[in-house]
Write a structure and sequence with these properties.
Elements (H helix, E strand, L loop, with lengths): L2 H23 L6 H14 L2 H5 L10 H18 L8 H5 L1 H8 L17
Helix pairs in contact: 1-2, 1-4, 2-4, 4-6
Length: 119
């Protein structure tokens, strides 16, 4: 396996969650520890079956949930280091629901109504 392939897969899985977590909590910097907890959250997301198969990354179909877990890990690290000025008590009380609510949901509404025309 090429190193570039692994790096691209890692980027694809962790950076959306890192960006989301940092943005939501208002952290001014991304620390080495935030990168570490992001990678750790990804590694911990692998199932026992995936580990037994020797997989390094979880199934791509889980990327949204992985991104959420990564974002939560980054936010928790920001809270631990007092870098989360944007979070209020409601957000802190349920980080999972807060992050879920703030995630972009790519649902597209058709711009043109599909109609059949008969002559």
């Amino acid at each position: 396996m090429h190193f570039d392939f692994l790096t691209n897969k890692l980027d694809m899985f962790v950076f959306p969650g890192i960006g989301l977590g940092v943005t939501l909590c208002g952290a001014r910097t991304v620390s080495d520890r935030m990168l570490y907890v992001a990678a750790e959250a990804l590694a911990n997301y692998l199932t026992e079956d995936e580990l037994a198969q020797g997989k390094v990354f979880p199934n791509l179909s889980t990327i949204r949930d992985v991104s959420k877990k990564v974002a939560i890990a980054v936010i928790e690290e920001a809270i631990r280091t007092d870098q989360a000025p944007r979070l209020d008590e409601k957000a802190l009380s349920n980080l999972d629901a807060f992050v879920e609510k703030k995630m972009y949901d790519p649902v597209y509404v058709p711009l043109i109504e599909k109609r059949s025309i008969s002559i």
